[in-house]
UniProtKB/TrEMBL annotation:
Protein name: DUF445 domain-containing protein
Phylogenetic classification of the source organism: Bacteria, Bacillati, Actinomycetota, Actinomycetes, Mycobacteriales
Region (Disordered): 237-258
UniProt KW Cell membrane keyword: no
Record field: transmembrane: 36-56
Biased composition (Low complexity): 240-258
Organism, scientific name: Mycobacterium xenopi 4042
Keywords: Membrane, Transmembrane, Transmembrane helix
Gene Ontology cellular component annotations, sorted alphabetically: plasma membrane
Length: 258
């Protein structure tokens, strides 16, 4: 596809963000064209106004000439007012430092602060954000989406993939360090001792530890059925250097099957 056709499909916002030189040149040409058109209308209104005044000066002009002169005069005044208003926003008209001109240049910080305050108070305030989130019903929509079997299976598969990658990236030393520094340290704190002791005493008194141990044993058994490679890798790593590799492999396989 040629370059001009490609540029023609770019929107104004996209070309502005991309800072395309060709798009900048197109905007400059369009601005010059609009300036010529606006100036042409102003000159035309001025010519019509002067012609009507000349016709009325002779005293023989028709009545409609006055209406045309008034319309041309209104067009001249409106054009000059619009030019002054737009120019005064960004710079001094004709370079004359007229008060209350070049507003954006002089007060851009105040305008930015005011705009930020408006957005913060009308769009980002906690009550408004809370209302928008409540109206969006994100949990309800997410629940309906996950209630479909294909979506639930997709989320489960993606989650399992991410967890498997994370587990493979973790090193045993790092895991042990985290357990020692966080879990074991927290458990060893004094405030955890009495509640944990009362919980264990209740479990032992009601013989609930058997169900817990059985549950853990079942979980470990089901995990070992699908963890042959992991068990084999651990056995091979922890086996002494003098042990043959074949016996290590057979031991790992036997432990997995059992």
């Amino acid at each position: 596809m040629p370059a001009p056709a490609r540029r023609a499909g770019i929107s104004f916002a996209e070309s502005f963000v991309a800072a395309d030189p060709q798009a900048d040149a197109d905007r400059r040409r369009a601005l010059r064209r609009m300036k010529v058109v606006a100036l042409s209308f102003l000159v035309g209104a001025s010519v019509v106004f002067l012609g009507c005044r000349w016709a009325q000066a002779g005293g023989t002009a028709a009545a409609w000439v006055g209406y045309v002169r008034a319309a041309a005069e209104a067009g001249m005044v409106g054009a000059l007012a619009d030019w002054f208003a737009v120019t005064a926003l960004f710079k001094h008209p004709l370079g004359i430092p007229i008060p209350h001109t070049a507003i954006i240049k002089r007060k851009k910080d105040q305008l930015g602060e005011g705009l930020g305050t408006f957005v913060r108070e009308n769009f980002l305030s906690p009550p408004i954000v809370e209302s928008k989130l409540r109206d969006a019903q994100i949990p309800s929509r997410l629940g309906k989406w996950l209630s479909q079997i294909e979506h639930a299976q997709r989320v489960a598969a993606e989650t399992a993939t991410v967890l498997r990658v994370l587990v493979e990236l973790l090193r045993d030393d790092d895991v042990q360090h985290v357990i020692d520094r966080t879990i074991m340290k927290r458990v060893a704190e004094p405030q955890w001792g009495p509640p944990a002791g009362r919980l264990l005493a209740t479990l032992l008194a009601e013989n609930r530890q058997e169900a817990l141990l059985q549950l853990l044993a079942d979980r470990a058994f089901h995990w070992s059925l699908n963890a042959g490679e992991v068990i084999q890798r651990v056995v091979e790593r922890d086996s002494p250097s003098w042990s043959p590799g074949s016996s290590t492999t057979s031991s790992a396989t036997a432990s997995t099957v059992s």
